[in-house]
């Protein structure tokens, strides 16, 4: 069939000129992200496994038990997750993939932080302005329905291979829920509470920080949870552009047709996903 | 401008129109078109239509009317949660409709606080933090606002609940927190939009009593909105009745009951329990003919009774103090005995009331005797007389004919 409208070509041209004209920006972003990922990686790997194990087990226990930490009912609530976390991390360590798991976690953390830094303000903006909402909403739909592989192309184009394009593609893919759920959470704050705020003379900032954000927090946290899980689901794809971690082991497993490798690293990702999910969910469900 | 500094809030020709074509709608309104016509022509709703009134310092001013009559819209204009389309709102002689945003926030923070029908508490904050919310918005230091918040919670009887969360409290208690939040700001003006409407009848009645008690101590200027006429009559010093955005009548409960300005008001007040509203002052006839104790003898008394066409008259001493009643039959007897004074036939064991006594309070006083009720002032001087018949007519709402029939039947027994 004949192409009447070569949209792809236009996009390519546009991206080309962006690449050339803003090259200083891309290299700055690349440097920044690489620096962050590498240092965080080194830091985590410098800490002995047992200490990290203890730390994460403690976090898991704390988010479940909260201020009932030292009571029997707190223990009853929290022991399940804590034991699961300990066994899960031991399993990853025993399979010999501790370093890769740390690399993956770092990637997820960095991507999530960037996604939230961008996503939450956009969420607030689209909650406050209907115009912003109508513009942002279709963009988010686009970002989520576009196959994740497609993001790899411009990411490689701007940043060649390595962790940075992996992080960028992950950020684009995992950002939408943070915008959507921040927006939803703020819009669902009951009108009478906001009216009460106004009647007592609260200005826009006070309304946002003292009323809207605190009341929207459970929804925003649910958004953060989704961002983390989406980021984790991108690790295999990100490994195709050179991001290190469990994803790249899975990728190797596929390429070498190595069932053992593929299964072990896949299992590692599942365990990580469950730990991150349960912990962040518990933060969200607390008062 | 309001020239009387006793006046806290003055509203002049206040109009508020909802919708996009406000100007057009306002023009039509000024030409005398009705609310429905304007809605049809411009798709704009007239929320408030040229309301004018003054609210005095220290009074409870009630705005009442049916759902949709524009009460909320009107009260929200007072702190400009709604921006008036036309007209003026003066607060302490200052026109707030022209205030900048900053001045407006200031007024809301320091001059007026509000209590809401749905409470509007923050669920993630403790009771104390909720009570101190207005102070926090104002930027007061934590220690100071905790202290003021505690004091306000104490005023509304919620001591001991300060560390709990709103969801742990009953509706009535939550509204106490709402009231405490408004009191903590220590503003002169309280705006209460159907503050008690969401509460159970018993709790509602408690809250009304409590509000009146607090008002007795603090003397705030309160604008109180309700659609419940009994509530309006109970708490209001003055009442404004609204219909379709128009203020139909303003007056005391009694003025509105006894002299409704429009048919609408009349229909509205028909169902009210008048016994608790109508007072001695309304029922009495003043300047009654009197018998002077030392001066008038039986003859004079009989003559006065004939002139007035009654068979009983009040007796006063030289200082105009009310002493009691003399009856025609006793006077006729004394006249035969050629007595000089009415002293021996004076009934002194008779009920007397003050002007503010209500029908409900007076009814028990007329059992077991035939004497009329004497209305006296603090010094015991006679101000008027209430016959038993007029009291019964008032409390039963029988008209005169029914009453005559009733009396006839009673006499036959
Ligand atoms: N935001 C709004 N936009 C358009 N019309 C409105 C708006 N708010 C109120 N109205 C209309 O203005 C009129 C007055 O409403 P208002 O809420 O002041 O009545 P109310 O007397 O407080 O009634 P209720 O007892 O139900 O609270 C109604 O006809 C209502 O439909
Ligand atoms: Mg209302």
From TrEMBL, chain A:
Transmembrane parts of this sequence: 43-63, 78-98, 104-127, 148-175, 220-243
GO cellular component: ATP-binding cassette (ABC) transporter complex
Highest taxon of the lineage: Bacteria
Organism: Tangfeifania diversioriginum
Compartmental location: Cell membrane
Record-annotated ABC transmembrane type-1 domain positions: 101-280
Gene3D superfamilies named in the record: MetI-like (1.10.3720.10)
Protein name: Glycine betaine/proline transport system permease protein
Keyword Transmembrane helix carried by entry: yes
InterPro entries attached to this UniProt entry: MetI-like (IPR000515), MetI-like_sf (IPR035906)
Any Pfam family hit: BPD_transp_1
GO molecular function: amine transmembrane transporter activity; carnitine transmembrane transporter activity
Main location per the UniProt record: membrane
Record has Transmembrane as a keyword: yes
Keywords of this entry: Cell membrane, Membrane, Transmembrane, Transmembrane helix, Transport
Entry similarity comment: Belongs to the binding-protein-dependent transport system permease family.
Gene Ontology biological process terms from the UniProt entry: choline transport; glycine betaine transport
Membrane-protein topology: Multi-pass membrane protein
TrEMBL record, chain B:
PROSITE patterns membership: ABC_TRANSPORTER_1, ABC_TRANSPORTER_2, CBS
Keyword list, A-Z: Amino-acid transport, ATP-binding, CBS domain, Nucleotide-binding, Transport
Domain CBS: 284-341, 346-402
Pfam families per record: ABC_tran, CBS
Cellular component annotations (GO), alphabetically ordered: membrane
Stretches assigned to the ABC transporter domain: 33-269
One function term, GO molecular function aspect: ATP binding
Gene Ontology annotations of biological process type: amino acid transport; glycine betaine transport; response to osmotic stress
Cross-referenced InterPro entries: AAA+_ATPase, ABC_osmolyte_uptake_ATP-bind, ABC_transporter-like_ATP-bd, ABC_transporter-like_CS, CBS_dom, CBS_dom_sf, Gly-betaine_transp_ATP-bd, P-loop_NTPase
Family assignment from sequence similarity: Belongs to the ABC transporter superfamily.
NCBIfam families assigned: proV (TIGR01186)
PANTHER family registered for this protein in UniProt: GLYCINE BETAINE/PROLINE BETAINE TRANSPORT SYSTEM ATP-BINDING PROTEIN PROV, GLYCINE BETAINE_PROLINE BETAINE TRANSPORT SYSTEM ATP-BINDING PROTEIN PROV
Protein name: Glycine betaine/proline transport system ATP-binding protein
Organism for this UniProt entry: Tangfeifania diversioriginum
């Amino acid at each position: 069939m004949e192409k009447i409208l070569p949209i792809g070509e236009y996009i390519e041209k546009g991206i080309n000129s962006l690449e050339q004209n803003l090259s200083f920006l891309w290299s700055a972003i690349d440097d920044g992200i690489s620096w962050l990922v590498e240092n965080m990686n080194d830091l985590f790997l410098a800490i002995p496994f047992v200490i990290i194990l203890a730390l994460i087990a403690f976090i898991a226990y704390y988010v479940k038990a909260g201020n009932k930490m030292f009571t029997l009912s707190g223990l009853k609530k929290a022991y399940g997750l804590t034991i699961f976390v300990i066994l899960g991390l031991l399993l990853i360590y025993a399979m010999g993939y501790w370093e890769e798991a740390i690399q993956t976690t770092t990637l997820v953390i960095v991507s999530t932080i960037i996604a939230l830094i961008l996503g939450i303000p956009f969420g607030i903006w689209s909650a406050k302005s209907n115009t912003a909402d109508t513009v942002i909403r279709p963009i988010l739909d686009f970002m989520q329905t576009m196959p994740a592989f497609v993001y790899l192309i411009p990411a490689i184009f701007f940043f060649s291979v390595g962790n940075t394009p992996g992080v960028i593609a992950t950020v684009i893919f995992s950002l939408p829920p943070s915008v959507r759920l921040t927006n939803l959470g703020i819009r669902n704050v009951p009108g009478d509470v906001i009216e009460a705020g106004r009647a007592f003379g609260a200005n826009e900032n006070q309304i946002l920080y003292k009323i809207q954000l605190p009341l929207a927090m459970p929804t925003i946290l649910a958004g953060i949870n989704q961002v983390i899980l989406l980021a984790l689901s991108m690790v295999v794809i990100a490994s195709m552009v050179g991001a290190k971690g469990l994803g790249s082991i899975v990728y190797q497993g596929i390429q070498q047709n190595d069932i053992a490798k593929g299964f072990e690293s896949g299992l590692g990702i599942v365990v990580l996903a469950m730990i991150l999910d349960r912990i962040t969910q518990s933060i969200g469900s607390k008062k | 401008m309001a020239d009387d500094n006793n006046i806290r809030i003055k509203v002049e020709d206040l109009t508020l129109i909802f919708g996009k074509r406000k100007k057009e709608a306002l023009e039509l309104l000024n030409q005398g078109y009705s609310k429905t016509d304007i809605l049809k022509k411009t798709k704009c709703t007239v929320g408030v239509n040229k309301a004018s009134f003054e609210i005095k310092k220290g009074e409870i001013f009630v705005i009442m009317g049916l759902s949709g009559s524009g009460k909320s819209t009107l009260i929200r204009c007072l702190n400009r949660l709604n921006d008036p389309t036309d007209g003026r709102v003066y607060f302490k002689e200052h026109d707030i409709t022209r205030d900048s945003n900053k001045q407006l926030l200031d007024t809301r923070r320091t001059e007026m606080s509000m209590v809401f029908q749905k409470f509007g508490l923050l669920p993630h904050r403790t009771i104390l933090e909720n009570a101190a919310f207005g102070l926090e918005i104002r930027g007061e230091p934590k220690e100071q606002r905790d202290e003021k918040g505690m004091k306000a919670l104490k005023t509304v009887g919620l001591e001991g609940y300060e560390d709990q969360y709103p969801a742990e409290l009953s509706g009535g208690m939550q509204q106490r927190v709402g009231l405490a939040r408004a009191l903590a700001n220590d503003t002169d003006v309280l705006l209460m939009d159907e503050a008690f409407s969401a509460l159970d009848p018993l709790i509602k009645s408690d809250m009304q009593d409590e509000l009146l008690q607090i008002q007795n101590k603090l003397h705030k200027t309160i604008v109180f909105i309700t659609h419940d006429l009994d509530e309006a009559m109970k708490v209001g010093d003055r009442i404004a009745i609204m219909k379709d955005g128009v203020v139909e009548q303003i007056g005391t409960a009694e003025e509105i009951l006894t002299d409704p300005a429009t048919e609408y008001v009349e229909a509205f007040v028909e169902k009210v329990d008048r016994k608790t509203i109508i007072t001695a002052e309304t029922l009495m006839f003043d300047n009654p003919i009197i018998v002077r104790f030392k001066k008038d003898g039986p003859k004079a008394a009989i003559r006065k009774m004939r002139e007035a066409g009654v068979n009983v008259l009040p007796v006063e001493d030289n200082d105009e103090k009310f002493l009691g009643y003399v009856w025609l039959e006793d006077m006729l007897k004394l006249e035969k005995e050629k007595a000089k004074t009415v002293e021996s036939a004076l009934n002194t064991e008779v009920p007397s009331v003050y002007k503010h006594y209500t029908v409900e309070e007076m009814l028990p006083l007329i059992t077991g005797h035939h004497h009329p009720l004497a209305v006296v002032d603090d010094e015991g001087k006679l101000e008027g007389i209430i016959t038993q018949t007029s009291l019964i007519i008032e409390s039963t709402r029988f008209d005169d004919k029914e009453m005559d029939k009733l009396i006839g039947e009673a006499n036959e027994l």
